Amino acid sequence: MGYLQVIVSIDSRDGAERIARELVEARLAACFQILGPMRSIFRWNGEIEAADEWLCLAKTTTDRFEELRERLVALHPYDIPEIIATPIVAGHADYLEWISVETTPSVRG
Q: pTM for the full model?
């Protein structure tokens, strides 16, 4: 089984918490960390923009990524949300096992 850290940025802490709770409740992410605010500078529709955003880090498995991505797109307020998955190539074995357990749909508790 493979593991991923998924990076997502969003325009509000409340929005980040709403998405976090839904993804963890649905067992699409074992953990959803919210950092910020941070300042983002980016090009959008031909203009240089600036915005305060919150950076989110979700921990999941490769098996759950596509469903997590689809749910993020549906929940996210941006037209094109940042959703970047980075493989976790090594980690504490017990932590990785915890990710597996907490993202298994049949587990309840």
A: 0.93
